[in-house]
Amino acid sequence: MAATHRLGVMGGTFDPIHHGHLVTAEEAFWQFGLDEVVFVPTGQPWMKGDRPVTPAEDRYLMTVIATASNPHFSVSRIEVERPGPTYTVDTLEALRAQAGPGADLFFITGADAMLEIFQWKDPDDVLSRAHFIAATRPGYDLARFETRAPTSHPNVSVMQVPALAISSTDIRRRVAAGEPIRYLVPEGVQTYVEKMHLYRSPA
User: Fold this and answer.
1) Which pTM value belongs to this model?
2) Which of 8, 41, 124, 156 could pair covalently with 37 via S-S, beta carbons 3.0-4.6 A apart?
3) How do residues 11-70 score in pLDDT, each as one tens digit?
4) Cα separation of 116 and 100, whole Å?
């Protein structure tokens, strides 16, 4: 019997990608015995219509730069190239078709995102298509998570990752304010942000 291919799926806006994302993916790779982790930058994230989102191509390229040195990481254009709003259920269906019947999918996301899962399109279908890994940090209020998220679902696991108080929101704010982001993001991502003049306040 052929061995099952364990494929991690790291979805996110990655606006920009930072070390917290990379640590989470690496921890999932190790804790869950994954064979690889594919990063999937969102195309048009329908749940973030309240703020401007950097063009998908820029976010895709920053993700490629950030993951290039890890042989277990890759980046998919599946959502970047899909027209219209992007939904996790459609992405998981497409990735399953690409990976074949011998693959198990592990969707890696933050615990806060898991709290919103029942607002996603077809949540029951989403939970049936992959094993969900909800990443938390030391000090995270697990009681809040356990009372609101589907933690009793057999396809949901909680994973604690090292404390990295980094967020894409704060990185965008720092760039707009002229504050440094060195060591918060990979060096290549910092260079890309500077070269493309991303996140700067309008003159």
Assistant:
1) 0.90
2) 8
3) 999 999 999 999 999 999 999 999 999 999 998 766 555 678 999 999 999 999 999 999
4) 29
CA distance 156 to 146: 11
Contact in structure between 58 and 29 (CB atoms under 8 Å)? no
Q: What is each CA distance from 92 to 32, 105, 123, 175, in whole angstroms? A: 18, 8, 12, 33
Buried b (16+ CB within 10 A) or exposed e, 117-134: beebeeeeebbebbbbbb
Task: Give the separation between CA 24 and CA 201, rounded to whole angstroms.
Answer: 30
Q: What CA–CA distance (Å, rounded) separates 88 from 109?
A: 11
pLDDT digits (tens, 9 = 90+) for 115-159: 777 677 787 888 889 999 989 876 666 666 666 655 567 888 889
By mean pLDDT, which of 85-89, 107-111, 161-165 is the weakest?
161-165
> Which residues have C-beta within 8 Å of that of residue 55, sequence separation ≥ 6?
none
User: How distant, in Å, are the alpha carbons of 43, 68, 135, 138 from that of 192?
Assistant: 19, 14, 27, 31
Closest CA to 40 of 71, 76, 68, 64: 76
List the one residue out of 112, 108, 139 whose CA is nearest residue 29: 108
Task: Name the 3-class secondary structure at 2.
Answer: coil
First to last CA, the chain: 62
